[in-house]
């Protein structure tokens, strides 16, 4: 009996230890995820500090700065260097946000939170996944973490506001890709005008399972439908996304020899992206997509 109990305790501890391991999925087939590019000013006080494809944004204010997304764990140094290159202090980063609780957007978040002492603010539905390092992600098997756990200091619901200095960001709950995927809508100014900016979390479908085969996320199909419809109704001047490839970042980056906010005002491409996502969703819903 004692031997059996000892074995049971050992297996339980071993399983718990296994779950503590952080195993960031390989990104070798996505070289743009790690390829650095020079940081630049998008519009007003909004800057790009990410890689060639994993989009990270810095919003500066007189009261401190907001950082949205961090890319992979290996991107920590690159992001911090980019912030410095733009002439801003790392210690002035006060708020951390993400568009989704996946390793390719949260990989370096724990490290950057530690360096900056900034507060992590997240959608309520993604907060548990952020806190456990991806362990409870509906599309994973729950055996290991995909990023280092991050303490969430404040949770948000749809249309809640993030205030810092002169900035007022509205968080939009856009679930599907993750349970708490979200977008951000806010205004920035330059010498010419005021711009309404949307950082859109486009609802690409990650799961290979049928929607009805995900008991841990029973409302997933409904959430995708809601998010696509909600994104189509938004009013904005400039739009960006979680991945540079979704809004032709490199093409615009190479074309922007100087400050050109107009490059990011291509609404036609925004609606084209949404139409393609809706088509993919419908195929998945009818079982035509494997």
UniProtKB/TrEMBL annotation:
Gene3D superfamilies assigned to the protein according to its UniProt record, in alphabetical order: Ribonuclease Z/Hydroxyacylglutathione hydrolase-like (3.60.15.10)
UniProt keyword Signal, yes or no: yes
Chain ranges of the Metallo-beta-lactamase domain: 53-243
Entries under InterPro entries matching the protein: Metallo-B-lactamas (IPR001279), NDM-1-like (IPR050855), RibonucZ/Hydroxyglut_hydro (IPR036866)
Leader peptide range in chain numbering: 1-19
SUPFAM superfamilies, A to Z: Metallo-hydrolase/oxidoreductase
Keyword tRNA-binding belongs to the record: no
Pfam families per UniProt: Lactamase_B
Keyword annotations: Signal
Protein name: Subclass B3 metallo-beta-lactamase
